Amino acid sequence: MLTPGKIDAEVLDELETALIEADVGVNSVEELVDKLRSGRSTHSGLDPAALLKSELISLLDDCQPERPERFTAKPWVILLAGVNGSGKTTTAGKLAHYFSLQGKRSVVAAADTFRAAAVEQIEEWARRGGARIIKQSSGADPAAVAFDAYQSARARGEDLLLVDTAGRLQARRNLMDELAKIGRVLKQLDPSAPHEALLVMDATTGQNGLSQASGFTAAVGVTGLIVTKLDGTARGGVVVPIRRELGLPIEFIGMGEGRDDLHPFDAKTFVDALLD
Amino acid sequence: QLTDRFERFVRNLRGQGKLTEANVRDTVREARRIFLEADVSLPAARAFVDGVLEKSLGREVLTSVTPGQQMVKIIHDELAVFLGGEFAPLQFGRSPSPILMVGLNGSGKTTTAAKLALHLKRRGRHPLLVAADTRRPAAIDQIETLGRELEVPVFTGDRKDPVAIAAGARDYARSQGLDCLIIDSAGRMHVDEELMAELATLQAAVAPPETLLVADGMTGQDAVRSAKAFLERVELTGIVLTKLDGDARGGAALSIRWVTGRPIKFVGVGERPADLEPFHPDRMAGRILG
Lengths: 276, 290
Ligand SMILES: Nc1nc2c(ncn2[C@@H]2O[C@H](COP(=O)(O)OP(=O)(O)OP(=O)(O)O)[C@@H](O)[C@H]2O)c(=O)[nH]1
Ligand SMILES: Nc1nc2c(ncn2[C@@H]2O[C@H](COP(=O)(O)OP(=O)(O)OP(=O)(O)O)[C@@H](O)[C@H]2O)c(=O)[nH]1
Ligand SMILES: [Mg+2]
Ligand SMILES: [Mg+2]
Prior knowledge:
The structure holds two protein chains of two kinds. By secondary structure, chain A is α/β, with parallel strands linked by helices. Chain A has helices spanning about 10-20, 25-35, 50-60, 90-100, 120-130, 140-155, 175-190, 210-220, 240-245, 265-275, and strands at about 75-80, 105-110, 130-135, 160-165, 195-200, 225-230, 250-255, 260-265. Chain A has an eight-stranded mixed sheet with strand order 3-2-4-1-5-6-7-8, sandwiched between helices. In chain A, helix 4 runs parallel beside helix 5. In chain B, helix 2 (about 20-35) packs antiparallel against helix 3, helix 5 (about 65-85) crosses helix 12 and helix 8 (about 160-175) runs parallel beside helix 9. One guanosine-5'-triphosphate sits at the interface of chains A and B.
């Protein structure tokens, strides 16, 4: 008869391995499993896997998949940021589409003015998402594009402004300054903007995800995460240490390259996948 | 950094006496933890630590006056050897010789294709970039823009099928006296059967002497899974690890090297065409160990 204090060591080892392989990271895994081993879990039950799942669901569950404060400002501004290739541009299109199903009209700011064909790419995604696009010539100041887009969305009474930014690595000081400037410009237009700053993170990211989260938060006040490419074999477990250390919730997940492949975060589904 | 950590670890183990066999085993376990923190996939970390370190952390360390330092040196050296012994150049066959770029979504294939074009151009070759990604929005615009900036020709063709595009590119290269094709393919999930089959078909049709797996340098545990899956479906002859201009430890280098056995040929260290470097195993070892 198992009790939380007497969990089979072999079972715990298996769970430890599963969590490590899901990118939860050595430190978090040790703390979670030690908690079970020592019977300090606040959940009761006999099955260690179920106990662990309960712990993780409590940790990651934000209890409000559809934020009630969203769209309480007009336009509601969502800034998308993240490292290169994480899925920001694709996600911008998906978000426009997602909110259009709720009757919201979107404007997209093509604020990646650096990368080859970034504007052409987001133009197509804005089209797919039924959103209007604001862009400027290549090499333009991204903050200026964000500024223009805000003014335009405000003038037309649109519900949502999605600001797509260029990929950047948090270790690159000048690029993080550029992102901070975009944030400041939006703040000047609306003191509560950006209302959401979402870090778009590839599910294959390892422990560098923690450095990403803190670096981007320092630059632009990240309010939540979007984990993309969960349709692969990566589980995105680095959100666990990010949640533990920075308190950031997961808002959405990306499950493919199509415009419908975006879902509001559900802790139970996510944690089940983490351990399977 | 690492030396301090090991010295401290070893000091705790030793107490007053000499280091014991058991201490060495504990140290090996500590090394594995360090690898996991550096994002080395668990099976790769185990294989390397158990297979390589156990035998080398022997008597030398037990009798050393600075065992911590000694252990770090052995781990570093073994890791560097494992990551890539002899230098592995790009492989070419008869002109126009194809190089096929493959990998997961967003790993850096298109950017790396352009980097390779510049690299080869600077070495006196005449590359043709081939826009065989027919899926991603503005993928063709992207590679055309990069080609224009480098003054490297880009073949786009009017067909929707990558195999037809590659065939058209080869004919075009011959007619223009271009000696190598850099074929950019669409990003894909290794679990997407349709896309992996498409890739296998493309490779079979092109028969490239060089197929490069382009992998994101900040990949964590998934590195072994995805690299293994690509290896099972297509011939891989080399690896390019991208985005190493960040602060990721880069444990994926060990993971991918271990599971594919293929040489890491280049690393991406930025977004510009010049930001491509030949792989230095010694430097990578130091980076992984932190
Ligand atoms: N399978 C899968 N692919 C995705 C997902 N999200 C994005 N992608 C793909 O990932 C690749 C990169 O997506 P982008 O939207 O260009 O990423 P980005 O962050 O805007 O890239 P940069 O602007 O260059 O930093 C593309 O091939 C997308 O189709 C996802 O959830 N699943
Ligand atoms: N910082 C940095 N960024 C890189 C590096 N290599 C590529 N990138 C960036 O990573 C992002 C994705 O690069 P792409 O070349 O579009 O990647 P891809 O593999 O072709 O993407 P898909 O075709 O959608 O699968 C872009 O923002 C590139 O500029 C690198 O070595 N360092
Ligand atoms: Mg983008
Ligand atoms: Mg590409």
